[in-house]
Amino acid sequence: MYEFVRGPLVWIAFIGFFGGMAYQFITMALLARKDKVVYPTLSAKYGLRSLLHWVVPFGGRNMQLHPVYTLLSYAFHFCVLVTPLFLMGHAVLWQESWGIRWWSLPEGVADVMTLVVIFVCVFFIFRRLVRPEVRNVSYPSDFLLALLVMAPFVTGYIAHQQWLPYKTLIIIHGFSGALWLLAIPWTRLVHMLWFAFTRAYMGSEFGSVRHSRDW
Amino acid sequence: MADLVDIQIIDPGVDENIAKLTPERIERTINKVLTEECAARLEVYRQTCVHCGLCAEACQSYVSRNGDPDYAPVAKVNDTLWEMVKRKGKVDGEFLHNAARIAFIDCGACRRCSMYCPFGIDISYLIMTVRRILNLLGVVPQYLQDTTNSHSVTMNQMWVQQDDWIDTLMWQEEDAQAELAGTRIPLDKEGAEIMYSIIGPEPKILAQLIANMAIIFKVAGADWTMPSTDGWDNSNMAMYSGDFETMGRVERLHWERAMQLKVKRVVMGECGHAYRGAVYDGPRWLGWTKPPVPMVHAVEYYYELLKSGRLKIARKIEEPVTVQDPCNIVRGRGLHEKLRYVVNAICEDFRDMDPRYEHNYCCQAGGGLINCGPPWKLSRMKSNKVKADQIAETGAHTVITPCHNCHSGIEDIIGHYKLGCHVSFISEMLVKTIEMPEA
């Protein structure tokens, strides 16, 4: 089983993830032609202007109104993207399998970043339960998605700390990570792909059509 | 939980027409719009929204109703469009009754929430899609549908007939001449620099605004004209009732009239949504990237006249004033700085609202809301307590509203919350304050 997780499953996850994202992107790019206003409206200048304001923490008024949420959300998104890519354990696998030399995070830093992801996921779930405006639009799938994102980080952390049988945990970790990657193109996690486009479109419409700001 | 009184409001345009629908027609209409008229934007927005609720505080109805979660923009889309998508159009009459209330009364398509959504999801577009569906089902609040019917028949919003139109202009020309000798309202002057464009309510109920503008043009020495026939009104309530075919007809005729008169530009009177219809929504529906003749809003035009010295202020208004930033010319055109330049030029004691500029709260009258008429007035008032608080905080005696919807909406709010102030268009203040030439 470990060999499967270490080998074919990784391929399945990566091919599924990149293939799914490419499929989504291409079908949407074609569908956007039917939406007559999309391409004529898009403007590189105003699209990037909007993106810049919304990727810089506190660049928009709403972020200033919710400082705690903003900080936690930025920390979460940074850690959730960077930790798996630059974790030392993963870097070793990159090198062993494909001979790719990769930067890696010091162990202590990676531990903290993993805990940040787990903590903020718990915060997201908690917020979903207690804030009426969020609970009102929350479905079981919203909670499941948060748990799905959390799962590889929790299992990876436990495996690393060796609190439970290492090999079993690594197998669960591999499956949960693969499931996470495979789910991204087909669930609301696809905002990872669409964020740049929805933002750029709104920025273009506010900037080039309406001569105003959208942050 | 949506307001218990509001959910029971009966509107013949909504409820009597729902009673005539069959499940097949509902399903067919919804799916037609979702698959034939909508495409990538709808699909990307549906996939992207993570239900974070960060748009909630952007909406004046959510804030005014003490954080009632049903008034958060995400809930409004969730309870209407996403549910239609999820159920593949298989929804019932009760669902449509609620969808009509949400889409026509609780959301003014002001686009403030799009500025608060981290993804920039165009929530107003999604609500307008709900209105489009309801329109094709014939489910539109009766008063709003009446204005659309008027557009369809007379090409103006208020059933103004051709003879009334000419008669009103002549009457206003005479009134203006009593104030300033030699003032004219030139009709059909081919090759004039400016075509002045107004909306239906002006000849119908606010005719003195036409005389005001004639005086301003006269003092500024402008070369201007107005059309004597249809095409003078582009207020376009059809844009908000979801009847995009009629919206297109109104805008096409308006621009055709400007082209026939061979004017260099169109000055739009103090109306926000007419400006939106003429500059964005109309041309988009007609497949144009921009209008064939440039259009400037009255605020831009006043700014130009004051800045260049073509209008000079003789005496400033001393009483405290504040200004309502109309969504469609501020979020929709970035005119907030020019608006403040104009207000400061005319008034001694200007007190700004907070939040302001693109972040100002909507008046809860635009977007077709006030046109839904008396059955819904109290609901609108409940949804904009935050605006009443904003106005009261400034201590202003006058709220300047360079938009017809804001003007009527704020007037309602002032009355309902007993704020003891009044509203004014800029043109009304200009004619009181500018230097008049010797007669």
What does this structure look like?
- The complex is a heterodimer of chains A (215) and B (439).
- With 215 residues, chain A is mostly helical.
- Chain A has helices at 2-6, 8-34, 38-41, 44-55, 61-65, 67-86, 88-98, 107-130, 132-135, 140-161, 166-183, 191-209.
- The termini of chain A are far apart.
- Chain B is mainly α and 439 residues long.
- At the A-B interface, helix 2, helix 5, helix 9 and helix 12 of A face helix 3 and helix 5 of B.
Can you give me a brief rundown of this structure?
The complex is a heterodimer of chains A (215) and B (439). By secondary structure, chain A is mostly helical.
Question: What is the terminal-to-terminal distance of chain B?
Answer: 63 Å
Count of helical regions of chain B: 21
H/E element string of chain A?
Answer: HHHHHHHHHHHH
- Low-confidence parts of chain A lasting 5 or more residues at pLDDT below 50? none
β-strand percent of chain A reads: under 5%
- Largest sheet of chain A at a glance? none
Report the principal-axis shape of chain B: globular
**Strand order in space, largest sheet of chain B:** 2-1-3-4
Alpha carbon gyration radius of chain B: 22 Å
Oligomeric state of this protein: heterodimer
Give the end-to-end Cα distance of chain A, rounded to a whole number of Å: 49 Å
Low-confidence residue ranges of chain B: none
| Main sheet attributes: strand count, strand direction, barrel closure of chain B | 4 strands, parallel
**Quick one: which chains have the greatest interface?**
A-B, 47 and 46 residues
Outline type of chain A? globular
